[in-house]
Amino acid sequence: MAKGKFIVFEGIDGSGKSTQIKLLYKYLTLKGIPCYTTFEPTDSPFGSLIRQCLSGRIETDDKTIAGLFVADRLDHLYNAKCGLIEKINSGVTVLCDRYYLSSYAYHGAFMDMNWVIDANRLSAEALKPDVNIFIDVAPEVTIERIKARGASDRYEKLESMKKIRQKYFEAFELLKDTERVEIVKGADDIKVTEKRIREVADKIFGF
Protein backbone atom coordinates (compact mmCIF):
# COMPACT_ATOMS: atom_id res chain seq x y z
CA MET A 1 0.00 0.00 0.00
CA ALA A 2 1.32 3.43 -0.94
CA LYS A 3 1.91 5.85 1.89
CA GLY A 4 -0.28 8.88 2.29
CA LYS A 5 1.08 12.39 1.92
CA PHE A 6 1.82 14.72 4.80
CA ILE A 7 0.74 18.28 3.98
CA VAL A 8 1.31 20.95 6.60
CA PHE A 9 -0.29 24.38 6.62
CA GLU A 10 1.72 27.19 8.18
CA GLY A 11 1.17 30.91 8.74
CA ILE A 12 0.78 33.51 11.41
CA ASP A 13 -2.43 33.56 13.43
CA GLY A 14 -5.41 34.73 11.41
CA SER A 15 -3.94 33.73 8.05
CA GLY A 16 -6.86 31.42 7.19
CA LYS A 17 -5.20 28.03 7.60
CA SER A 18 -8.19 26.29 9.18
CA THR A 19 -10.54 27.38 6.41
CA GLN A 20 -8.14 26.31 3.66
CA ILE A 21 -7.52 22.91 5.24
CA LYS A 22 -11.26 22.21 5.15
CA LEU A 23 -11.43 23.23 1.50
CA LEU A 24 -8.43 21.11 0.51
CA TYR A 25 -9.86 18.15 2.44
CA LYS A 26 -13.05 18.40 0.40
CA TYR A 27 -11.12 18.75 -2.86
CA LEU A 28 -8.87 15.74 -2.24
CA THR A 29 -11.70 13.57 -0.88
CA LEU A 30 -13.71 14.17 -4.06
CA LYS A 31 -10.69 12.91 -5.97
CA GLY A 32 -10.80 9.68 -4.00
CA ILE A 33 -7.88 10.38 -1.67
CA PRO A 34 -8.48 9.30 1.94
CA CYS A 35 -7.63 12.25 4.17
CA TYR A 36 -7.39 13.10 7.84
CA THR A 37 -7.25 16.62 9.25
CA THR A 38 -5.52 17.55 12.48
CA PHE A 39 -3.85 20.46 14.24
CA GLU A 40 -1.21 21.52 16.75
CA PRO A 41 -1.34 22.03 19.61
CA THR A 42 -3.50 18.91 19.68
CA ASP A 43 -6.59 18.24 21.77
CA SER A 44 -4.60 15.82 23.96
CA PRO A 45 -3.78 16.57 27.61
CA PHE A 46 -0.46 17.99 26.38
CA GLY A 47 -2.30 20.34 24.03
CA SER A 48 -4.72 21.39 26.75
CA LEU A 49 -1.80 22.34 28.98
CA ILE A 50 -0.25 24.38 26.15
CA ARG A 51 -3.49 26.29 25.60
CA GLN A 52 -3.68 27.16 29.28
CA CYS A 53 -0.13 28.51 29.07
CA LEU A 54 -0.87 30.51 25.91
CA SER A 55 -4.04 32.00 27.37
CA GLY A 56 -2.24 33.06 30.55
CA ARG A 57 -4.17 30.75 32.86
CA ILE A 58 -0.84 29.11 33.68
CA GLU A 59 2.15 31.42 34.00
CA THR A 60 5.34 30.03 32.51
CA ASP A 61 8.28 30.96 30.29
CA ASP A 62 8.88 30.56 26.55
CA LYS A 63 11.30 27.64 26.86
CA THR A 64 8.81 25.65 28.91
CA ILE A 65 6.10 26.28 26.32
CA ALA A 66 8.50 25.23 23.56
CA GLY A 67 9.24 22.03 25.49
CA LEU A 68 5.53 21.28 25.89
CA PHE A 69 5.10 21.61 22.13
CA VAL A 70 7.90 19.07 21.65
CA ALA A 71 6.07 16.57 23.88
CA ASP A 72 2.70 17.24 22.25
CA ARG A 73 4.24 16.82 18.77
CA LEU A 74 5.87 13.49 19.60
CA ASP A 75 2.59 12.20 21.00
CA HIS A 76 0.88 13.44 17.84
CA LEU A 77 3.26 11.29 15.80
CA TYR A 78 3.32 8.15 17.91
CA ASN A 79 0.02 8.04 19.81
CA ALA A 80 -1.35 4.47 19.73
CA LYS A 81 -4.88 5.58 18.80
CA CYS A 82 -4.35 8.46 16.38
CA GLY A 83 -0.63 8.71 15.65
CA LEU A 84 0.16 10.41 12.34
CA ILE A 85 2.96 8.07 11.33
CA GLU A 86 0.65 5.06 11.45
CA LYS A 87 -2.07 6.90 9.50
CA ILE A 88 0.35 7.91 6.74
CA ASN A 89 1.86 4.43 6.57
CA SER A 90 -1.66 3.04 6.13
CA GLY A 91 -2.26 5.20 3.04
CA VAL A 92 -4.08 8.16 4.59
CA THR A 93 -3.06 11.68 3.58
CA VAL A 94 -2.74 13.95 6.61
CA LEU A 95 -3.53 17.66 6.43
CA CYS A 96 -2.05 19.31 9.53
CA ASP A 97 -2.58 22.83 10.85
CA ARG A 98 0.94 23.66 12.09
CA TYR A 99 3.98 21.45 12.69
CA TYR A 100 7.59 22.09 13.69
CA LEU A 101 8.09 25.14 11.42
CA SER A 102 5.55 26.91 13.62
CA SER A 103 7.74 26.23 16.63
CA TYR A 104 10.81 27.49 14.81
CA ALA A 105 9.02 30.77 14.00
CA TYR A 106 6.92 31.35 17.12
CA HIS A 107 9.45 30.23 19.72
CA GLY A 108 12.42 31.37 17.64
CA ALA A 109 11.02 34.91 17.81
CA PHE A 110 11.67 34.94 21.55
CA MET A 111 14.69 32.63 21.97
CA ASP A 112 17.51 31.10 19.96
CA MET A 113 15.92 29.37 16.95
CA ASN A 114 18.69 26.77 16.83
CA TRP A 115 17.70 25.68 20.35
CA VAL A 116 14.14 25.16 19.11
CA ILE A 117 15.32 23.25 16.02
CA ASP A 118 17.46 20.95 18.17
CA ALA A 119 14.57 20.37 20.58
CA ASN A 120 12.35 19.25 17.69
CA ARG A 121 14.94 17.09 15.97
CA LEU A 122 13.24 13.79 16.88
CA SER A 123 10.01 14.90 15.20
CA ALA A 124 11.80 16.25 12.14
CA GLU A 125 13.67 12.97 11.71
CA ALA A 126 10.57 10.85 12.29
CA LEU A 127 8.22 12.58 9.85
CA LYS A 128 9.01 15.31 7.37
CA PRO A 129 6.20 17.04 5.44
CA ASP A 130 5.86 16.37 1.74
CA VAL A 131 5.15 20.08 1.56
CA ASN A 132 4.74 23.01 3.95
CA ILE A 133 2.14 25.43 2.58
CA PHE A 134 2.75 28.86 4.08
CA ILE A 135 -0.22 31.21 3.68
CA ASP A 136 1.33 34.65 3.70
CA VAL A 137 -0.93 37.42 4.97
CA ALA A 138 0.17 40.80 6.30
CA PRO A 139 0.23 40.96 10.12
CA GLU A 140 -1.89 44.12 10.01
CA VAL A 141 -4.63 42.12 8.28
CA THR A 142 -4.45 39.10 10.56
CA ILE A 143 -4.57 41.23 13.70
CA GLU A 144 -7.87 42.75 12.56
CA ARG A 145 -9.21 39.23 12.00
CA ILE A 146 -8.06 38.20 15.48
CA LYS A 147 -9.74 41.24 17.02
CA ALA A 148 -12.96 40.41 15.19
CA ARG A 149 -13.12 36.91 16.66
CA GLY A 150 -12.66 38.29 20.17
CA ALA A 151 -10.05 36.03 21.78
CA SER A 152 -6.26 36.27 21.69
CA ASP A 153 -3.23 34.62 23.26
CA ARG A 154 0.28 35.66 24.28
CA TYR A 155 1.55 35.78 20.67
CA GLU A 156 -1.38 37.56 19.04
CA LYS A 157 -0.10 41.14 19.11
CA LEU A 158 0.94 43.14 16.05
CA GLU A 159 4.63 43.45 16.90
CA SER A 160 4.81 39.76 17.80
CA MET A 161 3.11 38.79 14.54
CA LYS A 162 5.60 40.87 12.56
CA LYS A 163 8.52 39.24 14.34
CA ILE A 164 7.07 35.73 13.91
CA ARG A 165 6.46 36.25 10.19
CA GLN A 166 10.08 37.37 9.83
CA LYS A 167 11.26 34.26 11.69
CA TYR A 168 9.27 32.04 9.36
CA PHE A 169 11.22 33.41 6.41
CA GLU A 170 14.49 33.04 8.31
CA ALA A 171 13.61 29.39 8.92
CA PHE A 172 12.71 28.89 5.25
CA GLU A 173 16.11 30.21 4.20
CA LEU A 174 17.95 28.21 6.85
CA LEU A 175 16.22 24.97 5.84
CA LYS A 176 15.87 25.55 2.09
CA ASP A 177 17.87 22.40 1.30
CA THR A 178 15.83 20.10 3.52
CA GLU A 179 12.26 21.46 3.61
CA ARG A 180 9.82 21.93 0.76
CA VAL A 181 8.01 25.20 1.35
CA GLU A 182 5.37 26.65 -0.96
CA ILE A 183 4.54 30.27 -0.15
CA VAL A 184 0.94 31.05 -1.08
CA LYS A 185 -0.12 34.67 -1.01
CA GLY A 186 -3.31 34.90 1.01
CA ALA A 187 -6.04 36.84 -0.79
CA ASP A 188 -9.12 38.64 0.49
CA ASP A 189 -11.14 36.28 -1.68
CA ILE A 190 -11.01 32.82 -0.06
CA LYS A 191 -11.60 31.18 -3.45
CA VAL A 192 -8.47 32.80 -4.89
CA THR A 193 -6.35 31.41 -2.07
CA GLU A 194 -8.05 28.04 -2.45
CA LYS A 195 -7.15 27.94 -6.15
CA ARG A 196 -3.50 28.66 -5.38
CA ILE A 197 -3.39 25.90 -2.79
CA ARG A 198 -5.07 23.43 -5.14
CA GLU A 199 -2.30 24.12 -7.65
CA VAL A 200 0.28 23.14 -5.01
CA ALA A 201 -1.66 19.98 -4.16
CA ASP A 202 -1.98 19.06 -7.84
CA LYS A 203 1.82 19.11 -8.12
CA ILE A 204 2.21 16.93 -5.03
CA PHE A 205 -0.23 14.30 -6.28
CA GLY A 206 0.61 14.59 -9.96
CA PHE A 207 -2.94 15.50 -11.02
Key structural traits:
single chain; 207 residues; alpha/beta; five-stranded parallel beta sheet; 55% helix
Topology summary:
Layout lengths: L5 E5 L6 H14 L4 E5 L5 H11 L6 H17 L5 H6 L3 E5 L2 H9 L4 H7 L1 H6 L4 E6 L2 H11 L8 H17 L6 E5 L4 H16 L2
Helix pairs in contact: 1-10, 2-3, 5-6, 5-9
Descriptive account of the structure:
By secondary structure, this protein is of the alpha/beta class. Helix content is 55%, strand content 13%. The chain has helices at 17-30, 45-55, 62-78, 84-89, 100-108, 113-119, 121-126, 139-149, 158-174, 190-205, and strands at 6-10, 35-39, 93-97, 131-136, 181-185. The chain has a five-stranded parallel sheet. Helix 1 (17-30) packs across helix 10 (190-205), helix 2 (45-55) runs antiparallel to helix 3 (62-78) and helix 5 packs antiparallel against helix 6 (113-119).
How does the helix and strand content classify structurally?
Answer: alpha/beta
Unreliable residue stretches: none
Strand content: 5-15%
Q: How many H/I helices?
A: 10
Shape: globular
Largest sheet: 5 strands, parallel
Counting DSSP E segments of at least 2 residues, the number of strands comes to 5
Strand/helix succession = EHEHHHEHHHEHHEH
- Order of neighbouring strands in the sheet with most strands: 2-3-1-4-5
Mean pLDDT across every amino acid position? 95
Amino-to-carboxy terminus distance = 19 Å
| Helix fraction bin | 55-70%
